Amino acid sequence: xxxxxxxxxxxxxxxxxxxxxxxxxxxxxxxxxxxxxxxxxxxxxxxxxxxxxxxxxxxxxxxxxxxxxxxxxxxxxxxxxxxxxxxxxxxxxxxxxxxxxxxxxxxxxxxxxxxxxxxxxxxxxxxxxxxxxxxxxxxxxxxxxxxxxxxxxxxxxxxxxxxxxxxxxxxxxxxxxxxxxxxxxxxxxxxxxxxxxxxxxxxxxxxxxxxxxxxxxxxxxxxxxxxxxxxxxxxxxxxxxxxxxxxxxxxxxxxxxxxxxxxxxxxxxxxxxxxxxxxxxxxxxxxxxxxxxxxxxxxxxxxxxxxxxxxxxxxxxxxxxxxxxxxxxxxxxxxxxxxxxxxxxxxxxxxxxxxxxxxxxxxxxxxxxxxxxxxxxxxxxxxxxxxxxxxxxxxxxxxxxxxxxxxxxxxxxxxxxxxxxxxxxxxxxxxxxxxxxxxxxxxxxxxxxxxxxxxxxxxxxxxxxxxxxxxxxxxxxxxxxxxxxxxxxxxxxxxxxxxxxxxxxxxxxxxxxxxxxxxxxxxxxxxxxxxxxxxxxxxxxxxxxxxxxxxxxxxxxxxxxxxxxxxxxxxxxxxxxxxxxxxxxxxxxxxxxxxxxxxxxxxxxxxxxxxxxxxxxxxxxxxxxxxxxxxxxx
Length: 634
Fold this sequence. Notes:
Oligomer: single chain
């Protein structure tokens, strides 16, 4: 009898618990319905509602409804011309505005909140956002446009015209998608204000119209072109040309020089050249930019397309070959006057001339005896990095690395890939051992990066701050680091990272935050993932296995000696990353110990996709360290 009573009591308790939960749930849903009605009557909030068989479906429909209402709300105030949209005349003004608003859902449409009014199978969800948040999302995009403009200005100052054109055009695309495009203002370093919607197209036109192209050498099958901007060799810019049948894939200019292949019968002096400025293929680096480029018709700039004219021989008579070589030699353009060339350069010069001849003839084995086994393996890998071609003959600089080792800078080569639409131009450096054999080959940094390092090594009064050994060790390390990615040298990367290295990579993520009452807030945040050395090397191994090529481009760098650790340096770099299926841009930060120049060690490696206000946000937005991880964070 006692057992039966206990069983009945247990059953009764379960029934009461179930009823209590049901009443609580009904009470909660009633509160949610009450809250939904408050939102509907609140003029400071824009909302959307959706229903569906599942909560996910209802939420998607609610977001769609919200986006439509935002677009209707903004449309009456939107100042940009809707006819510039990529709609082929078939999409209404309202639909065009909706397309613009949709680009914000890919980026800065943060703080969109969700209220679950009822659950499946008759799910009912409300999505809502305050009007202040809508204004904030436009402000955030305008801030991004200004940052891109600042980066473009910096690139232009360093004669990196490809980067400048890309960021000017991307900034223009973002400005066109603002609520009030005509009110977006950029203040330059001299305090002068510019209305971006007018000023950016002028800048793009001015940059391209001030580029001069000359043919320096040519044959029936190829030609070398020399690009200058305001009489200075351009560090980098991209272009295509009409080969008599179609427009080619992208060709890269580096330190003023570019090498192109000609179809039979094509006259080099009548070539049509078109500069790249849209960079739609790279816009996946920024989903907001990608979104606006997809909805707006491309802007045509008259100065983007030119026709070469004039005779190459006449130009070469006016400018001697020796002067031309001195002007475009990459290491000579950097302030290498702070370094002394080695005595007795003749055997090194002779070796490099033999390497040149072997590359020009395509008979690489003719230079095999000039290399050590390791050096030849690197050279062989480099020659097969892509289809390799050598540009015009170069002037060389030979510098002492210590222990009777000498580095030669540099041979300029181009690399193209059969399954990709891009050609890379690289400075190739060679390191000779004590026996005057080439023991290492790497991609050079280029004149601008070298210049940054060499300038920091010397004070304004001419006093040396860093030793020659430190300068060469830093340069060599960065060259080897870049080359290791291009040639997929996992062994080098595994050796150069300290076993206890701090390795952090930032990833943009959308994070839902759900409260007990059913409300949900979606935030786009940067998630910083910390890797052990083994985890990071494994990640790289998987990347290398799936890519035809990997290429790093350093568009800006700042090197500082740390206050502790002897010969330890922090390196902050704006890095563009290209591979056969993926590309991105972001900020790379390294702390490198070079106390032993032969065995540099990376102590810290971080990467972030954008400037993050939560990091060093105390600086003004115009400050170069604003939002970036730096030495002060460690």
